[in-house]
Write a structure and sequence with these properties.
Blueprint lengths: L1 H25 L2 H40 L2
Helix pairs in contact: 1-2
């Protein structure tokens, strides 16, 4: 699940960069700003995916330690 979030986030970030560039090239500030928003949201999704991976890893580590102490 987290891997999917990271992939979708990277894709959204890439689309955002393209929109920013297109907005700059055409002088359309609304497109450039939409691209900036997409890029930032994509980075946030990637961070959420990474955080989820860390949380799952920590949970598995705790479960493993708990099993050793039984």
């Amino acid at each position: 699940m987290a891997e999917g979030k990271k992939i979708r986030g990277k894709a959204q970030e890439t689309v955002g960069k393209a929109k920013e560039a297109a907005g700059r090239a055409t002088g359309k500030d609304d497109l450039r700003l939409k691209g900036t928003g997409d890029r930032i949201e994509g980075k946030a999704r990637q961070a959420a995916g990474k955080t989820e991976d860390v949380a799952k890893g920590t949970a598995e580590e705790v479960k493993g330690k708990a099993r050793k102490h039984k």
